[in-house]
Amino acid sequence: MASLEKDEDGFYTPVTSAAVASTSTDPVPAESGDKKPVNSDLIDSTFEVTVTLADQQVDPNSPLYSVKTFEELGLHQDLLKGIYDMGFSKPSKIQERALPLLLANPPTNMIGQSQSGTGKTAAFVLTMLSRVDFTINKPQALCLAPSRELARQIMSVVTAMGKFTNVQTEYAIKENLPRNATQITAHIIVGTPGTMADLLRRKVIDQSEIKVFVLDEADNMLDQDGLGDQTLRVKNMLPRTHPVQIILFSATFPDHVRAYSSKFAPNANKIELQKEELSVDSIRQFYMDCKNAEHKYDILVSLYQLLTIGQSIIFCQHRHTADKISARMTAEGHKVASLHGAKDAAERDAIIDRFREGRDKVLITTNVIARGIDILQVNMVVNYDLPLMNERDKSAEERPDVETYIHRIGRTGRFGRKGISINFVHDKKTWLQMEQIEKALGRKIIRIETNDLDEMEDKMKKALK
Ligand SMILES: Nc1ncnc2c1ncn2[C@@H]1O[C@H](COP(=O)(O)OP(=O)(O)OP(=O)(O)O)[C@@H](O)[C@H]1O
């Protein structure tokens, strides 16, 4: 049976956003606020990872395209400073379309969909920052995310974008506040639903002035098989004395949550993607036909050099697989890290921070970080195990979980960068599951021979060019 990946809140789930100069052929971007080029290995390598944001932002077919400037979107001067300080120069399509709707008065709910890595975070963070009255020392915006790692990342965007404001922030994630904390006065609180609900219930968070409620990865947050109950608890504790703007964002809104989303955020403005637009073009998808489950391990090890050219994330279905392969690879002299929901909070924070800083290049993990995590140097994602529905829904047969697949591969190819995903298949069943994913996304997944390292390297080089 599939083991379920639980977040720190005990639910099934699966710093910083980047500064990107919109110049052409920008070699390996830096992480937020830090404008020096990082990851010299990448620059030195024969793989030329180049970014041509300027070109993509003038291509009307790109999700990064915009006709407008940030100035035209009606943002406060202090926020414009924050945006430019992060290295953004032009909005992406979702930012251009969503921000005027999000900032209009009276506030209107929003259900916004846009591909992975296209800048949804900035859209909702700027809305929260725009709506806060900094003279009132009370919580005014709540944001929920499915994992502590994502909550921490969102917070880093709030602080970077709000750098020139007086915004006060606080986390609602496990093991962050002292147990006897009595009152949070911060303007913006970012957290996971179980902890947020608990703090509201205990009145550590005073809800009276809350006017914005954001769900990032909203389809996941509303899914009844996952975090739906806790998210609803939070919503039910919001003030009834005045309207609260509800903002739902995700790259995916599968049919089974779409209707519920509209109920959760009534009368919302909607920005939706067509099914064939779900995944971004810049992620080249491959598969490798392994002989059996054990062979997958051998192939992963043979890929090690390629995995460390930039950074890579290896997704497994079970925590114990992640632990097992990372222990084995470590014992064989490879440097890898592993992260999953069974590790304690401090350890999780340390692992993701090391990976973000590029000190670890290969991260073996579970669905816990399948969504939202934004690390620009990640140019390869490996689905050691394909994501399956029964991780979420025990009654489901072993159907592939297409949404989780989209989010997993979306950890690469951020904001127009090139990326590669490789699926390991090892028998008829896994092959058929992959075929279903291929059909659902309408994109070819290309075979790479497992016994021809040169061909593999060659194909990958081309894909990253
Ligand atoms: N207008 C912009 N100009 C340049 N870079 C941007 C811009 N907007 C966002 N970015 C950068 O693009 C990257 C992806 O943004 P973000 O993490 O918000 O994507 P997302 O749409 O939320 O993705 P996901 O669906 O995976 O959560 C981040 O590194 C962010 O800093």
Describe the protein's architecture and organization:
The chain has helices spanning 40-44, 53-57, 77-85, 93-103, 120-131, 148-161, 193-201, 218-222, 228-236, 255-264, 293-302, 304-307, 319-331, 345-356, 402-409, 428-441, 453-464, and strands at residues 18-19, 30-31, 110-113, 141-144, 169-172, 188-191, 212-216, 245-250, 269-271, 283-289, 311-315, 337-339, 362-365, 378-383, 419-425, 446-448. Helix 4 (93-103) packs parallel to helix 5 and helix 7 (193-201) runs parallel beside helix 9 (228-236). The strands form three sheets. The protein has a seven-stranded parallel sheet, sandwiched between helices. The chain starts with 17 loop residues before the first strand and ends with a helix. Helices cover 35% and strands 15% of the residues. The protein contains 17 helices and 16 strands. It is α/β, with parallel strands linked by helices and 465 residues long. The radius of gyration is 21 Å and the shape is globular. Bound molecules: adenosine-5'-triphosphate (ATP). The site of adenosine-5'-triphosphate has 23 residues, from helix 5.
Give the termini separation. 40 Å
**Overall average pLDDT:** 86
Please state the overall shape, judged from the principal axes of the Cα atoms. globular
* Backbone structural class: alpha/beta
**Can you give the helix content as a percent range?**
25-40%
What oligomerization state is this entry in? single chain
Helix count?
17
Beta strands, count: 16
The largest sheet, given as strand count, sense and whether it forms a barrel, is: 7 strands, parallel
Q: Uncertain runs with pLDDT below 50, 5 residues or more?
A: 1-50
**How big is the Rg?**
21 Å
